[in-house]
Amino acid sequence: MRMSVTWKERLARNGLAWALLLPSLLFLILFTYYPMLKTAWLSLFQADLAVPEPVFNGADNYAFLFSDPVFQKVFSNNLWFAVGTVPTSMILAFLMALFADKAMAGKTFSRVAFFYPNMVPMIAVANIWLFIYTPQYGLLAQLAQWVGRADMNLLGHPDTVMGAMIVMMIWKEAGYFMIFYLAGLQNIPKDLYESASMDGVGAWKVTTRITIPLTMPTTLFVGVVALTNAFKLVDHLWIMTKGGPDNASNLLLYHIYDTAFSFYDQGMAAAMTVVMIAVLLILSSLQFFGWDRKIHYQ
Amino acid sequence: MQMQAKWMLLLLLCFTMLVGCGQSGSSNAGQAADKAAGQGISGAEPSGDKKPNGGEENIELTFYYPIAVGGPLTSVVENMTKKFTEKHPNITVKPVYTGSYADTTTKIQAGIQAQQPPDVAVMLSTELFSMLDTNAILPLDDFIAKESGDVLQDFYPAFLANSQVEGKTYSIPFQRSTIVLYYNKDVFKEADLDPEQPPKTWADLVEVAAKVKKAGRHGIEVPGSGFAYWMFQQFALQNMSDPKQNLMTQDGKKVFFDTPENIEALQFWHDLSLKHKVMPDGVIEWATVPTDFLEQRTAMMIHTTGNLTNIKNNAKFDFGVAFLPMSKQYGSPTGGGNLYIFKDIDPKKQVAAWEFIKFMTEPEQAAQWSIDTGYVAVRKSAYETDVMKTYAADFPQSVVARDQLEHAYAELSTHNNGKVSKALTDQVQAVLTGTTDAATALKKAQEEAERALKPFNK
């Protein structure tokens, strides 16, 4: 009796909310959560060309993964790719936002110019940068000719290929993050800056004591987006290196694609997908639950 | 996000299932029953139960094909299928352009899993074992046996080599290529070399490359990105003392990567850049090599015949095409795509698909397709047709690839082919970038390939 009353009360209170959430929830379940669970289930099977039907093999796929040198390499590549792209593009985005916010003349121009790389599709970006990096007559090679080193083949060497990719990714990403910082800067009350200038506080102190703390929510958001992007954006590999030379530029998602569609190894691809989902979950939950308390929400 | 690939597959599945439902709903009712029967027998002796294609029953075939070379080829294919229907009014072919080779295979795999494969398709000749292991394709021997005379006789054996395993033929060559040496005749003249005397041996190659090299121009380029295993195979074949040898066995269960001869071959490729300095070092990107050649940044290149039309249309200088230089023998692997028929379809469609394959590889079609694309025509009689004779007289370079077929061998193709060829590609790249020496690298590739092949050697 008591139970049904609370149920009714709850339904009356939350009914509309549920009704509004239901359509998107349905699609999420159908296209996100269901495939995720299905993938997790598949990762416990051997499902490759050696067996006509998937065979349950427990944690074997995972055991193999962690001893597989290619997976280790691809995974550490991806970590370096994140380390290389995330902080730099965020700092750059912040500085660009400060500049685009303050710039008197050409305010719109500078914003458009900074944001432009983001509007170019990844495949086109890869083609542009493929030309930039081409030895002998590529843009960079022509510049390097002045210094007398035209023959550098950045994409063809394991030591340089990752750096080249990171630079390209920062170029593409920073403008996108700048937009969020610009929005964040608009939200800081102007009277804070006014009182600071009345008190004669220097620009450095204003930035470190007012701007940076008050844009922390943006930083958190951008950080999550940047980290996940470091694992998600791999389109350029199809155009530029195919993960080579010798897996030096290979990233997790590209390797998963290769495993599933070139090697027909569905079980292993599923296991790697689960690892990837887990990593992304841990990263984003660390940020949300860890940093959350230190942030000044307004 | 990271599920994109899976999503695509899922969507594809939904899509193919929808299409499938539509089909069985609209066409005659008997088809569903026929299909079930076809599935039942397909495990044992599929084509034995085939009824002859009697009557005027209308049959519609779905034909998947990829495009891997430039040019307006979808319209060429559509014209070919229209011509076919003119000859066989009861068979309509629906050509579906399915992107690259990789995309096509992915779509077909999704179709197979949904039990809605296309009826006939062009896939890489090296997909043979993967298709067999997923039980997807039909052996063509019963069709071949019913034809008068030996149909396969006319096809170049080098192209058929990738179609056959354990005495059965599973696919018919359609768009095939080999690797050749392209050289810039103007540069040869400039360096006081006879432009009609391309290098014949490895030693010649090094010598000539050193002579034509100058600041801003390399002697030779060999691409080492995506298809490094293929480029390695040509060096390996040239260095084999026994012409019956290859990198793998015909049954696709064993590979021989780390033989002393192969180590020598890989060492030679490595030395071109790091010892003789006639080639840029590091891994050279597949697509930039033809551009470098056209821009005269390299005097010679080793590349697929698939680029012939591109070079012909864009070279602002006189160029020659030659056999690949030899060490112990001339040699090149073949490449490209074959026509396959799928198992899980109505037997009547299988018969119709065979008619279609026969038509597509008729001498006139093979000749025209070769001229339009730059691929090597797959059968001897294609070179006896008038169109081909006129074309060859006008463009003698096109015949070199055909002549080299005498020295061409099966492309690396094994069970678990994706993993095996990737193992080789990775290690070749490690050597080209100077990270590992040839012997260690090939030993590693051998071990990795053996691990991938282990389940097939029980």
Automatic annotation (TrEMBL), chain B:
This protein's UniProt keywords: Signal
Region (Disordered): 29-55
InterPro entries listed in its UniProt record: Bact_solute-bd_prot1, SBP
Signal peptide: 1-29
Matching CDD domains: PBP2_UgpB (cd14748)
SUPFAM superfamilies found in the cross-reference section: Periplasmic binding protein-like II
Low complexity bias locations: 29-39
Tree of life domain: Bacteria
PANTHER family registered for this protein in UniProt: ABC TRANSPORTER SUBSTRATE-BINDING PROTEIN, ARABINOSE-BINDING PROTEIN-RELATED
Protein name per UniProt: ABC transporter substrate-binding protein
Organism annotation: Paenibacillus profundus
Upper classification of the organism: Bacteria, Bacillati, Bacillota, Bacilli, Bacillales
